[in-house]
Design a protein that fits this description.
about 300 residues; mainly alpha; Non-ribosomal Peptide Synthetase Peptidyl Carrier Protein, Chain A; about 0% strand; elongated; RTL1-rel
Length: about 300
């Protein structure tokens, strides 16, 4: 057949018939797959039904109604200790046996033990820590106490009392009172003097009136002179506050004078223009060529040694 000629009706029919046969074959294959899936699903349903019937019959039997003994409860899990965060503090300054530093050293150790109760939970941890922070003669004493395991090593309180007996003499009691009597302001400011005085006052048994008088007695003379213009305060705190304010004013005035010195009287007098006194008509022989000084010039020259 010539390719240029249009296909005959027979050829078109055969072509359409081939396409239809191909589609029919594909539909049969899809139907076969669907039947296989349906059969597999039916088998799965049948198996589940059998299992369900078996489970139902087991539960409905009299033997199954008897409750089995309950299993023993699991052993309680021991609670883990909760980790508590404690503040990290530096070690106190090592104590060398200075009587004045005995109380501050023991106070630092006591504060450390209070802030770290888990680290220092026993007396057996506190006493060795204190001994490890001793030096010099204090360390020699502490080492001897620990090696002999004296009663002072039984607790921190006992060790503290024994340490104060040996090295705390002079920090409290009559000696502390004598230091309170001898303390003076000197060249330091009232603020610094009041700090030293309050520290010594805590170690004495004086009443407030006596402490006020002792503080007043130790003030520098220039502060006492300034206090004359004011009523005497009734309490130690009021006296310290007033004295501190006066001291600040006096020191500020001194700095101002050093920065702006006043001109001397003599230099001021020399700046006066010379004043000539009227010459008498008949001057004396010894007064020729001289002029008389005014009273102001004479006073200025006397003050300036001129």
């Amino acid at each position: 057949m010539d390719p240029a000629e249009p296909p005959s009706p027979r050829d078109r029919f055969e072509r359409i018939e081939g396409v239809l046969m191909l589609r029919e074959q594909r539909l049969e294959e899809a139907a076969a797959h669907a039947r296989q899936a349906a059969e597999a699903q039916a088998r799965a349903i049948t198996a589940l039904t059998a299992q369900l019937q078996q489970l139902t019959s087991t539960l409905s039997s009299p033997e199954a109604t008897v409750s089995a003994p309950a299993p023993p409860p699991p052993a309680p899990v021991p609670a883990l200790p909760r980790m508590i965060s404690e503040p990290r503090l530096g070690a106190p300054e090592r104590y060398n046996g200075d009587p004045k530093l005995c109380r501050p050293f023991l106070t630092s150790c006591s504060l450390l033990f209070s802030l770290q109760p888990h680290t220092f939970a026993t007396e057996g941890a506190k006493v060795p820590y204190v001994i490890s922070n001793l030096t010099g003669r204090a360390l020699l004493w502490g080492t001897a106490e620990w090696e002999r395991q004296t009663p002072a090593c039984a607790s921190f309180q006992a060790f503290t009392e024994e340490l104060r007996k040996v090295f705390g003499l002079g920090a409290t009691g009559p000696d502390g009172t004598s230091e309170l009597l001898s303390i003076r302001q000197g060249n330091q400011s009232v603020a610094d003097y009041s700090i030293d005085f309050r520290t010594k006052a805590r170690q004495s048994n004086w009443n407030l009136a006596a402490l006020r008088d002792a503080f007043l007695h130790g003030l520098a003379e220039y502060i006492k002179d300034e206090l004359v213009s004011y009523p005497l305060p009734a309490t130690l705190d009021e006296l310290i506050e007033l004295s501190t304010r006066l001291d600040l004013r006096v020191r500020a005035r001194r700095r101002e004078r050093r920065q702006n010195p006043a001109p001397s009287t003599a230099a001021h007098c020399l700046d006066f223009p010379p004043a000539s006194a009227p010459v008498s008509a008949d001057p004396e022989p010894m007064q020729l060529g001289r002029t008389r000084l005014t009273p102001e010039e004479r006073q200025c020259r006397q003050m300036g040694n001129l």
